[in-house]
Amino acid sequence: MAAGNVNPFNLSDSDEEAERRPSETADTERSPSDGAPGPPPGNPFSPPADAEPPSLLLSCSRTSPSGEGISVSAAATAAMAGSGETRVSVDVIAAQLLRDQYILTALEFHTELLEAGRELPRLRDYFSNPGNFERQSGTPPASKDQVLGPGGPLNRAGSISTLDSLDFARYSDDGNRESDERVAVLEFELRKAKETIQALRANLTQAAESEVPSQERKNFKSSPEIQEPIRPLEKRALNFLVNEYLLKNEYKLSSITFSDENDDQDFELWDDVGLNIPKPPDLLQLYRNCGSALPLPRDMVDVAVGVDFGELPGNYITQDPPKKPDLSQQVCVLASFSILSPLDNSKLSPAFQQALLSFCRMSSDSRLGAEVSRIADSEESVMLMLGRCLPHIVPNVLLAKREELIPLILCTACLHPEPKERDQLLHILFNLIKRPDDEQRQMILTGCVAFARHVGPTRVEAELLPQCWEQINHKYPERRLLVAESCGALAPYLPKEIRSSLVLSMLQQMLAEDKADMVREAVVKSLGIIMGYIDDPDKYSQGFELMLLSLGDPSERVVSAIHQVFIPAFAAWTTELGTLHTALIPSLLARIEKLLTQGEHGLDEHKLHMFLSALQSLIPPLFAVVLQNAPFTSRAKLHGEIPAIEVTRFPRPASPLQDVATIIGSREMLSALLLLYDHQLEHEGTTGWDSLLWVVNQLLPQLIEIVGRINVTSSTCVHEFSRFFWRFCRTFGKIFTNTKVKPQFQEILRLSEENVDATAGNGILTKATVPIYATGVLTCYNQEEDRKLLVGFLEDVMTTLSLSHAPLDSLKASFVELGANPVYHELLLTVLWYGVVHTSALVRCTAARMFELILRGMSEALVDRRAAPALITLCSGPEFSVRISTIPAFGTIMETVTQKELLERVKMQLASFLEDPQYQDQHSLHMEIIRTFGRVGPNAEPRFRDEFVLPHLHKLALSNNSQAVESKRIDIATQLFEAYSALSCCFISEELMVNHFLPGLRCLRADMEQLSPEHEVRTCTHTHTHTHTQDFISVSIASSLVGEDAKTKFLSKMGQLTTSGAMLANVFQRKK
């Protein structure tokens, strides 16, 4: 507005307004709605003639809602008729404009007030409510303050907008344009209205789908601990109010986070909530009014128009809904209506009434028509009706939505009086979904458990179990899986006789016959639950056989389930019977011993792992038995300050059922018992402690004896027993390990040469007892004294075995098991340095050979800093045997390390072995180098292989042709064959092929030709068959040549090869 303009609605008493000339009044037109004349002279509402009209006010010719032109002055005069010079409230003017449906004039008035900073609540609320503009002709206004004027309702279509939807151009001074543009504008607004309807329908559909069924709502009311799910509209409304609260109270970051988590909602616009309802008070106001009496919500609300706050469906937030009559009351009301004649007060004859009503199109002949025409008059009749209708309803419901019928089916089956109908309904339940997924099975199982709680064990046995039995051999695994899971879920609600007979037999049959892994997994878990509730001691042997059967299952899922569920449950039952340490554990130990006795020439490692893993899963329940039967158990107190259990006190359990705290009852009780346990072991001993004495005097000696009988070269067996002893010692604690376990091992492993039988090789130090003690017992705790004990033990074993010329398999097994964990690399290097600086060459040779076992997986920094210098130190010694022993370790470095400087140092050392004249006649050294080249060549750096390995193999093959000693020549040729076999898979350039690889093979062929028949037989024992040797040489050459033609020709010659050396020579000659 211009600076000199005066707001005509500003009722000011300034002198400027008082001195206005009476003759300067604006032209007005009489409104047909009130017929009021123009304002008298001096009317304060009339602006001066020379004043610029307000920019937002419509001119006198603009169209009013009633179809007539009207000015602002006329409207104001009409509102103030008879008031003279009395000041009138702007709210009264606004109310009069809205009441007479002068919508555009009221909008201008509202705009002027906004610019003047005097917002009027009545106008703000009116124009911010879309419901006031979204009704078709014939629909009454939503506001009680609004009435239709003589011109009828607002002549425009509904729109999703408010202020933006009022087209100012349509009400311009150009009246002709209105008729031209009217159709286009109405078409646009009709399209917008249709979009609004579609959006509202989508919101209402979503709300309807999320609506909780009435039966479930009844359950929610009867069970206060179960909360009714929130509806989408309620969630969006509450989200808006929460965000508004956060902003008002300066929780801006929380508001931003809340908005991000609800990105599908616009928190700046209340209309985005989804329905046309006015905004409720803020959260603070709702909280303050939550205890006050508010009007009850109405039964129905038309969501298409604006409503008062008392009509808001979400108003139940602050008040309890009205209590509805129960089912019996509703049925009685319906029954009372059903006995009344439709024309009860009529004087028509009955025949005429019947004839008259026959014109109503009703169908009672069909089944559905009979059900519809028959109104239930009691709760029992409702159940009967549901029993009749549900079998016809279920097949017509979408498969994806059939789980919605589960509550209805179960309630009907639970309350129906007819056993046959109940059986049919339960049959429908188990066949409701063709292949139920995990969520659907959980829903069915939840319903079955609820059914079992309600009806009791007898009906569960008579009605539910037959349904399971029928589906035990169903063709779909999902159905059989449902049966297996049902047996476990229903176990607590079955009679104990049925649990230990019928259900156990069903699960046993499924475990033995079912081919689906997931079904057998569920069977094992259900068997574990059955074992937790079984109380028949005669079923122990059956449970033990089921455990062994499950342990031997080929599926990892089934084996995992047996360790997580079945074994802990079975152990808990045997603990109650008192047979855990008298029957179950001894039975497993006896099977392990029998396996070792039968497998002297070939141990079944899979069965050993099976029995040992079961024994390992019994360690936590065994320790719980020791604590619960200790002399101090009765003194355990839970009151007072009890220290928390260290996180690393126990190994990580495979499942919660293997957690010692779960077995005992609570972590607090376990902590109190552990304090007394450690004190008892350290100060009072084990007198009278039968369960612990059995562990110390019977279990441990038997385990140590078994350990001494396993094959030390079997890394799998060593690893399994090592892990078992580690978990055993960690579970029973450090004091027990130091005072009970270590002394028994040390008594057997007396570190002296007397304990090593060098001739027979059967001394205790050559057995698996050494690596299992080192890796399973001495590594349980990682403090300084524990590490020193481990280092000293390994040093003594290395020295004793070396000086006794005994096999080093036990020491190698220890280094391999420890070397797999990088934590022990420094410790092992410390042990080996002790051997490097030892005075005996035998010990130094052993140390050199141990390096090869631990270099893989070791960091390059550690190799460069400690391993490589130690090996070079060994090479500087005078003994050739020690130098030769370092070659495999150098080869491993070449295979695993990428650091160039370190590789050059190793390369120089190996070159000195090959080129130094003092090693020229060292047959053992050449054998070791060729063997190492064959092992590391394929994995070594290509440059090292091309520039070092292949040329030196060529030289060694060439020099072997002139070897005078035939046995040495055969040995070298055999090793060369193995080396070329390994290198044949590598990419070899054409230059290397011509200069080194093929010449080396020709030299090897020459050695083969010179062999006598008996030597050929000896060579065949190294290479499996002489034919394989010839074939390999041909294939090696062919596969390395560039070009498919050469390969094809060479492979065609392979079919012509015989065992004669002449034919082999001919092939090579043709290749020249």
UniProtKB/TrEMBL annotation:
<feature type="compositionally biased region" description="Polar residues">
    <location>
        <begin position="129"/>
        <end position="140"/>
    </location>
</feature>
<keyword id="KW-0677">Repeat</keyword>
<keyword id="KW-0175">Coiled coil</keyword>
<feature type="region of interest" description="Disordered">
    <location>
        <begin position="205"/>
        <end position="226"/>
    </location>
</feature>
<dbReference type="GO" id="GO:0055037">
    <property type="term" value="C:recycling endosome"/>
</dbReference>
<dbReference type="GO" id="GO:0005802">
    <property type="term" value="C:trans-Golgi network"/>
</dbReference>
<feature type="region of interest" description="Disordered">
    <location>
        <begin position="127"/>
        <end position="159"/>
    </location>
</feature>
<dbReference type="InterPro" id="IPR011989">
    <property type="entry name" value="ARM-like"/>
</dbReference>
<keyword id="KW-0967">Endosome</keyword>
<feature type="region of interest" description="Disordered">
    <location>
        <begin position="1"/>
        <end position="69"/>
    </location>
</feature>
<dbReference type="InterPro" id="IPR006594">
    <property type="entry name" value="LisH"/>
</dbReference>
<dbReference type="InterPro" id="IPR040362">
    <property type="entry name" value="RELCH"/>
</dbReference>
<keyword id="KW-0333">Golgi apparatus</keyword>
<feature type="compositionally biased region" description="Basic and acidic residues">
    <location>
        <begin position="18"/>
        <end position="32"/>
    </location>
</feature>
<keyword id="KW-0445">Lipid transport</keyword>
<feature type="compositionally biased region" description="Pro residues">
    <location>
        <begin position="37"/>
        <end position="51"/>
    </location>
</feature>
<keyword id="KW-0813">Transport</keyword>
<protein>
    <recommendedName>
        <fullName>LisH domain and HEAT repeat-containing protein KIAA1468</fullName>
    </recommendedName>
</protein>
<dbReference type="InterPro" id="IPR016024">
    <property type="entry name" value="ARM-type_fold"/>
</dbReference>
<dbReference type="GO" id="GO:0032367">
    <property type="term" value="P:intracellular cholesterol transport"/>
</dbReference>
